[in-house]
Amino acid sequence: MNKRFISLILAVVMVMGLTLPSHAEETYSSPKKDSAQLQYQDMLMLFLLPHIDEAVRGHYIHTLKEQPLVYPYFVDVTEVKRVNGFRGFHFIITLEANPTVGPHISVGKDRLVFEVAPTIPGGMVKLVEYKHLKTHELPPHWQNIVK
């Protein structure tokens, strides 16, 4: 009888799911509903994500043994400027990213500024500025990846 009770409890817990704490939740708040603006930002992230990843790798290669990942939902567009006036297609885009390792453990916060224009050689995107804003301390069981 005792085994059946424990099995029943385990089954209920598995069906309901456990909410485990995530260090990413401490550093990032997610929007609660969809909007046109959020959809445009998400599409922009798909376009910029390879460039964001490259810049982040270049920074954290000096401090971490494992390279962090940047998930598009952990990036905020903080500013967009249209450089050459109304309906011009030359932009300066400022982002703040929260790179993570493992199960979404944030390693820091970084500001990236990209120039996006059809006249930029080699692919329309150029990293203009990268600034590391904050380093997050890793939990004890992840300290082994710090150089």
Task: Chart the SSEs and their pairings.
Layout lengths: L1 H15 L6 H5 L8 H25 L14 E8 L8 E7 L2 E2 L3 E2 L1 E9 L8 E11 L12
Antiparallel strand pairs: 1-2, 2-5, 3-4, 5-6
Q: What does this molecule look like?
A:
- This protein has helices at 2-16, 23-27, 36-60; strands at residues 75-82, 91-97, 100-101, 105-106, 108-116, 125-135.
- The protein is α+β, with helices and mostly antiparallel strands and 147 residues long.
- A hairpin with an 8-residue loop joins strand 5 and strand 6 (125-135).
Question: What is this structure, in a nutshell?
Answer:
The protein has 147 residues and is α+β, with helices and mostly antiparallel strands. The chain has helices at residues 2-16, 23-27, 36-60; strands at residues 75-82, 91-97, 100-101, 105-106, 108-116, 125-135.
Topology as a string of helices (H) and strands (E)? HHHEEEEEE
Number of strands: 6
Q: Report how far the terminal alpha carbons are from each other.
A: 52 Å
Instruction: Kindly provide the radius of gyration, computed on alpha-carbon positions and rounded to a whole number of angstroms.
Output: 20 Å
Structural class: alpha+beta
Overall pLDDT? 86
Shape: globular
Per DSSP, what share of the residues sits in E-state strands of 2 or more residues?
25-35%
Low confidence ranges: 11-22
Oligomer: single chain
Major sheet, described briefly?
4 strands, antiparallel
How much helicity do the residues have? 25-40%
Helices, by number, come to 3
**Largest sheet strand order:** 1-2-5-6
